[in-house]
Specification:
ABC3_permease_C; Lipoprotein-releasing system transmembrane protein LolE; transmembrane helix; 7 helices; lipoprotein; cell membrane; mainly alpha
């Protein structure tokens, strides 16, 4: 399960990278103006690191909470979907299950949570570095 969740988090990290890269390209003019007004490379780097990290933290916490709610209520969800569709989902005669099992493994959950937070922080480094490296003269030349 850890490998599956790692792949899902990697895709989310790539989305953070692409989103922040597009944000840096889109806000190049504004970054150049901030730099000409006296903002340092470090302050631009911090702005984009905080932006990307907040996206990662909010996404990780939302995924964690949603996963916990689904895991704790999986049998109720199965019964509701069965009632809604008027079919029997996971028939006991076919699957030999009286109820849908779900077990929360604390160690694996914490590992996935820390891995997701770490990857989301790492995903913000490259776009933030690109934003901090932006030359104000080149960014404002063709505006």
């Amino acid at each position: 399960m850890f490998m599956i969740l790692t792949m899902i988090v990697l895709v989310a990290a790539l989305n953070i990278i692409s989103g922040l890269t597009m944000l840096v390209k889109d806000k190049g003019h504004d970054i150049a103006i901030l730099r000409t007004m006296g903002a340092t490379r470090g302050s631009i780097l911090r702005i984009f690191l905080i932006t990307g990290a907040s996206i990662g933290v909010v996404g990780t916490l939302a995924g964690f909470l949603l996963g916990m709610v689904v895991c704790l209520n999986i049998e109720s969800i199965r019964q509701f979907v069965s009632w809604l569709t008027r079919t029997e989902i996971f028939s006991p005669e076919l699957y030999y299950l009286s109820q849908l099992p779900a077990e929360i493994q604390v160690g694996e959950t914490v590992t996935v949570l820390l891995m997701a937070l770490g990857l989301s922080f790492l995903a913000t480094v490259y776009p933030a570095w690109r934003a901090a490296r932006l030359d104000p003269v080149e960014a404002l030349r063709y505006e």
